[in-house]
Amino acid sequence: MASVLPVKTVGPTIPAAYLGFPEKEDKSYGFDLRTPQTGSCAKWLDAQEETASVVYVSFGSMADLGKEQMEELAWGLAASGKKFLWVVRASEEGKLPGGFAAEAAGKGLVVQWCPQLEVLAHPAVGCFVTHCGWNSTLEALSLGVPMVAVPQWTDQPTNAKYVEDVWGTGVRAGVDGDGVVRRDELRSRIREVMEGKTGAEIRKNAQKWRKLAAEAVGDGGTTDTNVREFVRAFAGQTSG
Predict the structure, then answer these.
(1) Looking at CB atoms within 10 Å, which of 73, 128, 210, 236 has the fewest?
(2) Angle (nearest 5°) at CA 161 between 150 and 60
């Protein structure tokens, strides 16, 4: 690209503390959204005894899932046999099926919001069920978290294809003729990512990309080099 246009790529634009540089104490994007549930998420994750045992589920701040899809997701999570942390916005809570709260008791935690980077970086988290918005995809890729992709619109299907077919860091859940991911499909895909030979390969790839992300922003990495070259080029233009 640089041979055609004077463009310098940088990234991933993830706070440095999550990329293996804790000494930088950089843990936010420049703002910090805190709610009373922030502490409960961390406390619940800390209480999990096994590493990489929790399924984190979030569809971002814009996706509006239908009631049928919400019900299938709920029962698929319950049937997965895995602990789960599910972010369900207040506007979506009415779509949860009757009896789900009782079924989920002891298995999962449903919250209206949580600090996603902190959750993805937590050692208890082993799978991310995501709509594959670019920010969520980049965060999971950079933090080495395997994904089950459930894309909804815009760039999300493309991102999901990269997750499954290019990076090898997850799988895409299939939909039926009504465009709904059914409970058995979700259960199967979660287990595929977290268990067996396929899961082991996905986890291996996820850690590879986590390492590459850290190298990119480290001293001498592509981001470090490109920023320095950009500054030099810009300084040369302004001084001339």
Answers:
(1) 236
(2) 35
